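Quick start: what a row looks like.
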Amino acid sequence: MARRADVKLNSREIDKPLKSPEVQKELRRRTGAAAKAAGDGFESEVTMGSTRALGMVRATTHRARARNARDHVLMQVIDQMRG
């Protein structure tokens, strides 16, 4: 009968790479490309969460919000963030 191994993860150490400057730089690159592809009125932002860096693209003007609601612009440019 195989014994079950108990593994304890050190979450502070796991969080370090997810918050690293390299990850933040890559998020800025990817979200910036998506915002640029979306067009005027869209901007990207990288923030720090409690466990990792977070990147987002959002519509900042009324015109961009209306265009996104009508045409799903952010869904169309999501591939820009994949690579």
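That is the whole record. The beta strands are 42-48, 53-59. Residues 12-81 form one domain.
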